[in-house]
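Suppose a colleague, Dr. K., hands you the sequence of a protein chain of 211 amino acids and asks what its three-dimensional shape might be. Before reaching for any lab equipment, you can write down a predicted structure in token form. Begin with the sequence itself:
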Amino acid sequence: MNWSKLTDSIFNGDIFGTPVLVKEAIAEGIAPKDILEKGLIAGMSAVGKKFKINEIFVPEVLIAAKAMQAGLTVLEPLLAESGVKPVAKVVIGTVKGDLHDIGKNLVAMMFRGTGFSVLDLGIDVPPERFIKSAEAENAPIIAISSLLTTSMPSMKDTVELLKKKGSAARIKIIIGGAPVTQEYADEIKADGYAPDASSAVDKVKELLGIR
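The predicted structure, expressed as tokens, is then:
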């Protein structure tokens, strides 16, 4: 298998060519885990690196993520059959009082593209739903987005509710969004902050001790 063809297909946002290449790899008898890691994840990792240094921008990342998802749709049944488990589960959503979702969607796609399982709660998510969902799904990470300063207090409410429920030892909260800063994360005692989608993946891996 020519892995560079598959990674380039994702990088270039080829939503039609990517699943074809995945099917070719499957036909060659390549293990689903290898297709995931050496093809799909490698492709999205390359996208993330370029995005982090501003060589590509949000539209290109969204297109690449769609190509990756097209390939993953073909691969997922085989991954399940072969017992390949996701890196970890992430519960993600935009806070209560905020209806913006482009940034949140980008982060969710980047998580999926790097081997995480993602439960996307959507927009206008209250603190209680974040906590209940993470507990029900046994997810170690809650990722919260906000684009409005008026909705940022809901982030603090979620952190405080998690601690009140006694789940802070096993569930970590990472926050992000245009008005959000590291200083605010420190102030509300969130476990992590990420300025962009690629950094969010790195921070979650750091919090979970994943290399």
